[in-house]
Amino acid sequence: MWLRTSCELSFYIAVPTPFILMLRPRSNAQQWVAKEEYKISPHVLVYEHTDGYSNLYQRLIAPEGAFSIRTSADVKVVDQLDQTPGAPFVEVQNLPDQVLSYLLPSRYCESDRFNEMAIEITNGKAPGYDQVASIEKWLCKRILYTPGESNFAISAVEVNQRQSGVCRDLAHLGIALCRSLSIPARLVVGYLYDLKPMDLHAWFEAYVGDRWYTFDAVHQGARAGYVAVGYGRDAADVAVFNQFGPSVFPTVQTVRVEKIDEFI
Amino acid sequence: MWLRTSCELSFYIAVPTPFILMLRPRSNAQQWVAKEEYKISPHVLVYEHTDGYSNLYQRLIAPEGAFSIRTSADVKVVDQLDQTPGAPFVEVQNLPDQVLSYLLPSRYCESDRFNEMAIEITNGKAPGYDQVASIEKWLCKRILYTPGESNFAISAVEVNQRQSGVCRDLAHLGIALCRSLSIPARLVVGYLYDLKPMDLHAWFEAYVGDRWYTFDAVHQGARAGYVAVGYGRDAADVAVFNQFGPSVFPTVQTVRVEKIDEFI
Amino acid sequence: MWLRTSCELSFYIAVPTPFILMLRPRSNAQQWVAKEEYKISPHVLVYEHTDGYSNLYQRLIAPEGAFSIRTSADVKVVDQLDQTPGAPFVEVQNLPDQVLSYLLPSRYCESDRFNEMAIEITNGKAPGYDQVASIEKWLCKRILYTPGESNFAISAVEVNQRQSGVCRDLAHLGIALCRSLSIPARLVVGYLYDLKPMDLHAWFEAYVGDRWYTFDAVHQGARAGYVAVGYGRDAADVAVFNQFGPSVFPTVQTVRVEKIDEFI
Amino acid sequence: MWLRTSCELSFYIAVPTPFILMLRPRSNAQQWVAKEEYKISPHVLVYEHTDGYSNLYQRLIAPEGAFSIRTSADVKVVDQLDQTPGAPFVEVQNLPDQVLSYLLPSRYCESDRFNEMAIEITNGKAPGYDQVASIEKWLCKRILYTPGESNFAISAVEVNQRQSGVCRDLAHLGIALCRSLSIPARLVVGYLYDLKPMDLHAWFEAYVGDRWYTFDAVHQGARAGYVAVGYGRDAADVAVFNQFGPSVFPTVQTVRVEKIDEFI
């Protein structure tokens, strides 16, 4: 399946403001970026680097006045992401080194507080994929998905208290539950085809069997139409934009995902 | 100054248990490890790796029964760690890339919640080193240091509510306050000569001017006798030991730091 | 200046053949990639990764039959790359760690064999930038530039014997001479506006003062119109394509670089 | 088996000279460093870092006059390194990313020049481990091992012309032959118990099956008593000491390896 994603952010900037942006998808085994645009108006000097999670990020100083960023990408994604019920739990001693940090608690995923709850939710499930699938199902049934109502992130403990949240919040709770069972889990930020209402999306991946698998408490069981832009331990690591100094919110934020014919 | 540090941990292990240990100090500009021992009884297969913060860590599976780890090191440390009152705040756009992640909130340092408080504490101070020094002083005066009373970490928000904590807790609050002012800050775990009561210690570093500086809310202004073992965003990243499965606590934990003559 | 670069490679593949490609330019302080296309026909599964030099590379298996790759990019480049005559030599002990490996000899740059020659060429020049500039000038005068006559790389020693070579060969000799003076130097592969005959290009960078500077023995003193695609110790690290198994050469290789109006 | 290794280097330094040393063994699955000493006389400021191959290296400036380095380590090594005749060749597309760079030619291993020769040597052998074993055997029979006769490295092409060399030279030729068959190979520098005459040693590893295996043209088939200190593409990457400025050679170089009782 070929998708065209686009994201437009417009700001009004009062004082020159440093930004760190994460808006450039990378090609990997699940997605191939065949075409891409990244426009900054007015154009300023940008530095691009790779962070510890292999995300590309852009650093710039937004000048005073109207400032906008428009990105788009034509991406071939796999028609159906893999699901492997029964994929086994990997004992900690057998996890690859680069996966270990995804076992640790993080800002929005206080996994050290969820062990009992996770055991209860996954009761009777085979360790590994099936546990994560039961967590995803539980989130879907028990935590109310309230899109579009959040300006800043809350942590898994808070999500669990409120019993509701945006996609990112549900993902954080899912991650905290997985890690509390010693299953590595990470946040993914990106696009989802046919998401309603359309917006940037967040979901999570868990490491079972011998690889990462995609889970999404908002679209339980659906496994198609995802374009990943960033990976990290939680939303603290994967912000589409991080801005420093006086708070600035986009005056316009437009996100689109369309199917396109095979890229010619 | 030459120091001999030692740490002995003894456990009784009920079922084979994976551990990740961080007990091997590394040489750097502040310290030179001239001699080192690391004994594991009974000896088991150990894998050693370097994490994303350049810490060496050891992975092993502790077998059933008595299990102990004894480490010691002869280390030359600088006589006096640098202090540079007046060292300026570095604007975000000028920070080196590898320092950026220390601006983000983390599990035990919810820096996104402390901006107002940090502004108040540092009121009237020049941006940079002097702000951090005033945070260190504030912690020292306002947060009661209660050594030895903690089995698991609490976060900066909780430390601030309780108004007391162990060295690690004070450091976490210091880090959260620094980051809320866009000053990169990180946790350091290691040894401190003449600490009373003697134990493993934790303190923090802040990036101002063009480098990291040491701060310690427990020993405000003191800048000598530190041996660092691990660095990270907070205690989630730098645990002396992380153990998976049923909880295990050391039956014995002995820490010593002595002055020695120049290493012969 | 805005440039549109494009490169098309067509192959006829006899047996399925693994390729490693390096054809995706990255944004950095000298260039901003505002638009990019990367088409593979027929489309096959591609993995993209970052190597130890921060280059993006693509791994794929080319299927039997006609196989082609077409890339293009719209890139804003600085109007004039910096030149800083007089920028000083950096003593080895003061070089940043990540620069040290560019002091070592490598496959095509046997810097351990060029010390006397380098001293002679740079005689009377101030250590640092001026030495490198005199090496660039010497290469330009003494080594005949023979574009398009090379199918595989030769080393600096061989280039020096032949007294002629393609752009990559001249760059290799320049790098070997710099390193023999303890000046870190690296190869850059990419595009150059107005290169005649148009082709992919290679040049070199040297680390003096406190940063990398661009040098090009083919276009001595010219410092405009460069788009970098890959960096490495020499051509062994930065091949536009590396192919394994029976040798395959492109049946068509088309390279274009045009000026475009500011990207809209 | 427990081994105590030691290496002493003494220099007479005429002008302050920057050194990069690689003398600190690291623990890994094959070896556990239980005790270690690293003495520098006179003691100077040392920086320690990790290079791109995970080696620890030390940077310092040797002062004028007598300068010495004494290191020793008590290391538990596996009794017998694994040998797996029949372990299969890994097709390039299936190699892990971090292994790819060991396929490329390097300063002392011009693997691009050895394909025909490698095919001839390994004629009739199953692709993979058995090919490498036949290369090791060929080296042992055909290239005369002449310990202690080399002050600076020669490349695989030169070793093949001379038909003789030190351990490092034989390893370089082995590596070049492996890579020319698309088998990743790397140099290891360290200690070997019972080596005669005793000295620092160099051997090589090849990646077949799903891991690195040890080969040694000097001690064909022997697989015990190895302590690794550094890994790299070839001797350019793994020098026990690299010194810059006017050449300096050790006035004394003493290497010892003894068996010890289990470390208490």
Summarize the entry for a quick read.
Chains A, B, C, D: This is Transglutaminase family protein. The structure is a homotetramer of 264-residue chains. The first copy, chain A, is α+β, with helices and mostly antiparallel strands.
CATH class of the largest domain in chain A reads Alpha Beta
Average of pLDDT of chain A: 93
Category by helix and strand content of chain A: alpha+beta
Query: Cα distance, first to last residue of chain A?
Result: 14 Å
Largest sheet of chain A, described in full? 4 strands, antiparallel
- The count of DSSP E runs of length 2 or more, i.e. the number of strands of chain A, is 14
Number of helices of chain A: 4
Proportion of strand residues of chain A: 35-45%
Tally the structural domains of chain A: 2
What integer value in Å does the Rg of chain A equal?
Answer: 18 Å
Order of strands, main sheet of chain A, comes to 3-6-1-14
Oligomer: homotetramer
Q: Portion of residues in helices of chain A?
A: 10-25%
Describe what this molecule looks like in 3D.
The structure is a homotetramer of 264-residue chains. With 264 residues, chain A is an alpha+beta fold. Chain A has two domains: 2-78 and 241-260, Sandwich (Immunoglobulin-like); 92-232, C8orf32 fold, CATH 3.10.620. In chain A, 16% of the residues lie in helices and 36% in strands. Chain A is built from four helices and 14 strands. In chain A, helix 2 packs antiparallel against helix 4 (167-180). The first copy, chain A, is globular and about 55 Å long. The two termini of chain A are 14 Å apart. The model of chain A has no long low-confidence stretch (mean pLDDT 93). Chains in contact: A-B, A-C, B-D, C-D. Strand 3 (31-41) of chain B pairs antiparallel with strand 3 (31-41) of chain D, so a sheet runs across the interface.
